[in-house]
Amino acid sequence: MSHTAHIPSHRKPRRGASKTAIRSGVAGGVLSTIALAGAAAPANAEPVTETIEMPTLTAGLAGSVAQSAAATQQVADSLDLRAQEDAAATHAAKVAKKAKAEAQRKAEAKEKAAAAARAKAAEERASRSEERTTLSGSSAPASNSTTQATGSAAAVLAFARAQVGDAYVLGSTGPNSWDCSSLVQAAYRQAGIDLPRTSQPQSTAGTQVSLDNLQVGDILYWGGAGSAYHVGIYSGGGKFIGAQNSGTGVVEKTLDWDPPSGAVRLL
Questions:
Q1: What is the reported pTM?
Q2: Cα 25 from chain centre
Q3: Domain that holds residue 133
Q4: Considering its fold, how many domains does the chain have in total?
Q5: Which among 20, 45, 47, 267 is least buried, having the fewest CB atoms inside 10 angstroms?
Q6: Which spans in the chain are helix H?
Q7: Under DSSP, is residue 255 helix (H, G, I), strand (E, B) or coil?
């Protein structure tokens, strides 16, 4: 037996022929593919390079920041508008409060003036009443200079004189303001005579009489009979009582102060 018979061999085992053939075939195929690709490409072709831009976070972040800034500005504008509206409402409330106080002050002043005027008118009426009482027993001729009122005429005249000093208000029917025809109508009601409301029919309600032959209680009119624009009551002594206008109110004046156009008699 050889002295080396029991020493294991350190040589690698040989690969099988089939495995070697397979590996050779694969390598050959790869080399063939590379050769064909090289042959197909132009000799002077440059290597193909392509740059792919990958999306970055910078653009999205900028959009978010811009959107946030716009939203912040919108909120700021809204708050500023609300502040302006609140300021305007506060100013309007102050103006309204001041106007209300001024209106109340004027109303109070007007009421005080009206109360003073009523008190003065009442005092004047009391004075006239006392004067009529003093003169009630006197007699006078039936003429334009002086005429003593009796019966129904006295009632008409007493009522008309009691309203002297009242205000003139177109369309008013008393008790503290009158227009011309409402005063005549109310005065004649004291004698039980119901007259039409306006001056036109009142100017034809009785018998037409001459201005040279007037008696106390006759209705005086200005304008034409049936188309008169103003009426009054003859009070004797060349005077009349009438609600003239808003400037004078109810007054007793002489006929030459505002000469009438005609007269009618009902009493």
A1: 0.47
A2: 105
A3: 82-138
A4: 2
A5: 47
A6: 17-40, 57-135, 151-162, 180-189, 199-202
A7: helix
Single out the residue of 128, 133, 152 nearest to residue 217, CA to CA: 152
Q: Is the same domain home to 109 and 226?
A: no
Q: Are residues 187 and 246 in the same domain?
A: yes
Asked whether residue 113 falls in the same domain as residue 178, the answer is: no
Task: Give Cα 52 to chain centroid, integer Å.
Answer: 71
In degrees, rounded to 5, the angle at the alpha carbon of residue 11 between the alpha carbons of residues 10 and 16 is 140
For 25-62, give one letter per residue: b (16+ CB within 10 A) or e: eeeeeeeeeeeeeeeeeeeeeeeeeeeeeeeeeeeeee
Per-residue pLDDT tens digits of the chain, which is 267 residues long: 445 455 555 555 555 544 544 454 444 544 444 444 444 445 555 555 555 555 554 566 667 777 888 888 888 888 888 888 888 889 888 888 888 888 877 777 777 666 666 666 556 555 555 554 444 433 333 334 334 667 899 999 999 999 999 999 999 999 999 999 999 999 999 999 999 999 999 999 999 999 999 999 999 999 999 999 999 999 999 999 999 999 999 999 999 999 999 999 999
Q: Are residues 213 and 127 located together in one domain of the fold?
A: no
Structure tokens given for 14: 């040989």
